[in-house]
Specification:
Blueprint (H helix, E strand, L loop, with lengths): L5 E6 L7 H14 L3 E4 L5 H4 L5 E2 L2 H4 L21 E5 L2 E5 L2 H10 L4 E6 L1 H12 L4 E5 L15 H22 L2 E6 L6 H9 L4 E3 L7 H13 L5 E6 L11 E2 L10 E2 L2 H13 L3 E5 L11 H19 L5 E6 L2 E6 H4 L11 H8 L7
Parallel strand pairs: 1-2, 1-6, 6-7, 7-14, 8-10, 8-13, 9-10
Antiparallel strand pairs: 2-3, 4-5, 11-12, 14-15
Helix pairs in contact: 1-10, 6-7, 8-9
The structure holds 6-O-phosphono-beta-D-fructofuranose (F6P).
Length: about 375
Amino acid sequence: MAKKKTIGVLTGGGDCPGLNAVIRAVVKSSFNLGWKVIGIQKGFEGLMDPSSAKELRSHDIAGILTMGGTILGTTNRGNPFEYSVKKGGKPVIVDKSDDAVKGFKKLGLDALVCIGGDGTLKIAKRLKDKGVPIVGVPKTIDNDLSATVITFGFDTAVSTATDAIDKLHSTAESHQRVMVVELMGRYAGWITLNSGIAGGADVILIPEIPFSVEKVCEKVEDRYRTKKNFCIVVVAEGAKPAGGGLFTKDAKSEGRQEVLLGGIGDWLAKEITKKTGRESRSLVLGHLQRGGHPTTFDRLTATRFGAAAVRAIKERKYGVMVALRPPDVVFVPLEEAVGKMKSVPVDSDEITAAKELGISFGD
Ligand code: F6P
């Protein structure tokens, strides 16, 4: 009897609402073609050491459409091409990509679906160059991948952030305070811009528009002068004061190579108090933005992406990433899809509309 076509699926990088919906769609679409699906645990770590990989059956995906996180687990570490190992007590970077290729073969896979952000998709591209038939599925709450109009996870993160801003209004108003909310997004301001407008923020600070603390304070004072008596400031973790640098946290001690952002909200709240004398408080929304049930939009996009990934394999289109180009889901070559960041255009309609409403960008 001919061997059943077998595909692998893994999730890499930070988790994001909708990952499970993609996994479910990959499994269901594969089952309908009579294929078998192997779930690889903890991203590429689980490909280099496939001992924990297991076949996904119907009961494994039951009820996961609405669940946040990923049933396969994930990690921000474990890049097979730049793998950190300890030699003589010191961390050394080695290339373990051959182990990943071996893992693929050992599992008897015909193709691999890699669900992840830019980092994961870059690794997928390099494994494809080593001959692994791969299809990428983009995920990110940050919405910063240029090859797709939108990814799943972003809509849920924006809803969570908007909900938090809504809730902060009552304390801001009751205490006549300035509330500063620091939001995720890395080097792009999508989450902050969208939730800031939807949540009725007075000041929106994004990486794409360097800001001046003086201008922010002018807006704060204006709110009190016009008897609004409170002010909501939303600031992206990657925003920068004009002429200043990024606010970062140490990630090297965790063995991470990339920069982790954070800290601007607290700094800004203190600056506002120093310059205006107004009572200010800051809140870092952090990983709450990555949690919870995916919204309807994210479930739908994730499901379409999962089905499209299997379609790509059926059509033998490898080395591609599925992407949303409304109304279609298309296949984009991985080399075109990775490494190109999508920033907020400063002349976007959203920014124009926000400015027309009197929202300050601190510029
Ligand atoms: O890319 C998603 C994201 O949540 C960013 O918005 C944020 O800067 C980063 O990941 C946080 O990473 P970690 O989960 O490693 O703290």
